């Protein structure tokens, strides 16, 4: 029987980060539904560096990247927590300063109100995107709207995501605004 992608992905990542001295413990991160991609997070038992894997890629969610940084040794995870907290504080301060500079200049930020259409969507498809990255694949009629007949016609939009091969319904309330 063939091994699942996550088993192979964890084995490969253990080899990559092992070369940097890390020993990872793995956990599956929560997902909103079965239609959302599986993501696993590995955390170094010594220094707290992290790496995440999904079916197609790896990334990091923390201040220390286990893929590219050498392990700082046993008992240093508390330093990673301190670094992460300080980085979050610096980011919050920078955003606060930016917002204050906008206010001082008399610029009022207003949240965009128009839905974002995927520029790569075919011309005859809706192409509106959800906040989760799904692009509506419903065909448009001559008026440029969906062929829907009102009550009981199903969800507002049905789309696909570039990271998986599922079709996911979403409503106008879930549209990405730009």
Descriptive account of the structure:
It is built from two helices and seven strands. It has helices spanning 5-18, 77-104, and strands at 24-28, 40-44, 50-53, 58-59, 135-136, 157-160, 167-170. The mean pLDDT is 83. With 178 residues, the protein is α+β, with helices and mostly antiparallel strands. Helix content is 24%, strand content 15%. The protein is flat and about 65 Å long. Strands 1-2-3-4 form a four-stranded antiparallel beta sheet, with helices on one face. A three-stranded antiparallel beta sheet has the order 5-6-7, with no helix packed on it. The N and C termini lie far apart (46 Å).
Topology at a glance:
Elements: H1 5-18, E1 24-28, E2 40-44, E3 50-53, E4 58-59, H2 77-104, E5 135-136, E6 157-160, E7 167-170
Antiparallel strand pairs: 1-2, 2-3, 3-4, 5-6, 6-7
Strand order of the largest sheet: 1-2-3-4
Fraction of residues in helices? Answer: 10-25%
Q: Which outline best applies?
A: flat
> Beta fraction of the residues?
5-15%
Q: What's the main sheet like?
A: 4 strands, antiparallel
Integer-rounded radius of gyration: 22 Å
By DSSP, the count of extended strands is 7
Average pLDDT over all residues: 83
Which descriptors apply to this entry?
3-stranded antiparallel sheet; 24% helix; single chain; 4-stranded antiparallel sheet; alpha+beta
